[in-house]
UniProtKB/TrEMBL annotation:
The lineage of its organism: Eukaryota, Viridiplantae, Streptophyta, Embryophyta, Tracheophyta. It comes from the Eukaryota. GO terms for biological process: Golgi to plasma membrane transport. It comes from Salvia splendens. Residues 137-261 form the CCDC93 coiled-coil domain. This is CCDC93 coiled-coil domain-containing protein.
Length: 288
């Protein structure tokens, strides 16, 4: 009975393959079927390996517990070096098996992430780098993070452009509304005297508002000009102070050089009188 059911399933699979080959020749359908088969085989291998790891972990845990009891019992052993080596080797193997168990627990989620990121090259990479799955996961997640950051930058750029276009749209709507209002008033002005009065009043209002804005801009410009002049004056004073400080520093360095050479009759006649008075006392202190 089970054999008949298996034959029916195989017949259905064969029919599906024939339909795929007939309707989609040289397409990804055939590749998808082979990849699904590979995935099933890998899942089976993963379950077998996980079961083996669990059994090895249990066995090694028992060995480690027994060796630990023997080590803590205080008994004397003839071959203590071999005993310690066996205990250390069992502990290392147990840690290795535990790491593989952790990796197998998280592998389904990580496999799905990698498959979604690059489904075409997923299985060949998995087969080639099976001993180094952690490195493969790290590389794939790093590439995925790079792609996310790139998409995020593009999205922000598009949002900035969209906001700028919205502002331009609002300005254009306001200008269009103003032009439509002026056009309507012109049409009324052509047909009636009241329309001409309304048009004149409207233009005077626009002129008055524009003049107010111009006056406000002019006032702001004057304030900015005053601030600029103040900053220029401060800058000029700072430059003068910097030059004076630079001259003082040079004079002080020269005084130190003269003092280091043992010269006590430092002549400052070529310098400014104010500098001479300022550094005479300094030089006399340095000389003493």
């Amino acid at each position: 009975m089970e054999k008949d059911e298996g034959d029916d399933v195989m017949e259905e699979v064969r029919i599906l393959r024939e339909k795929i080959d007939k309707e989609c020749p040289n397409s990804i359908g055939r590749r998808l079927v082979s990849l699904l088969g590979s995935m099933k085989e890998l899942e089976k291998q993963e379950l077998d390996f996980q079961s083996q790891c669990s059994s090895d972990c249990s066995r090694l845990q028992k060995e480690v517990d027994e060796l630990d009891k023997m080590l803590n019992s205080g008994a004397n052993y003839v071959d203590s070096d071999a005993f310690h080596h066996s205990f250390q080797d069992s502990s290392e193997r147990l840690e290795s098996v535990k790491k593989w168990e952790i990796l197998l627990v998280i592998s389904p989620t990580l496999n799905w992430v990698i498959f979604c990121f690059d489904p075409v090259n997923f299985f060949p990479h998995l087969l080639c780098f099976a001993p180094n799955l952690a490195i493969l996961y790290e590389l794939r997640l790093s590439e995925l993070n790079t792609q996310i950051q790139k998409t995020l930058r593009q999205t922000r750029k598009h949002y900035d452009t969209y906001n700028a276009l919205l502002e331009i749209k609002d300005l254009m709507l306001k200008e269009t509304s103003l032009l439509n209002s002026i056009n309507l008033q012109f049409q009324n002005a052509i047909t009636s005297a009241d329309g001409r009065i309304k048009l004149t009043n409207s233009l005077e209002g626009i002129l008055y508002g524009t003049q107010q804005k111009l006056d406000k801009v002019q006032l702001t410009h004057e304030l900015e000009q005053k601030s600029c002049n103040t900053i220029k004056e401060k800058y000029t004073a700072a430059i003068s102070e910097q030059r004076r400080s630079s001259s003082l520093v040079k004079l002080f360095q020269l005084a130190l050089m003269k003092n280091a050479q043992g010269t006590k009759g430092f002549d400052l006649k070529c310098m400014n009188t104010g500098y001479h008075k300022s550094f005479s006392s300094v030089f006399s202190r340095l000389s003493t």
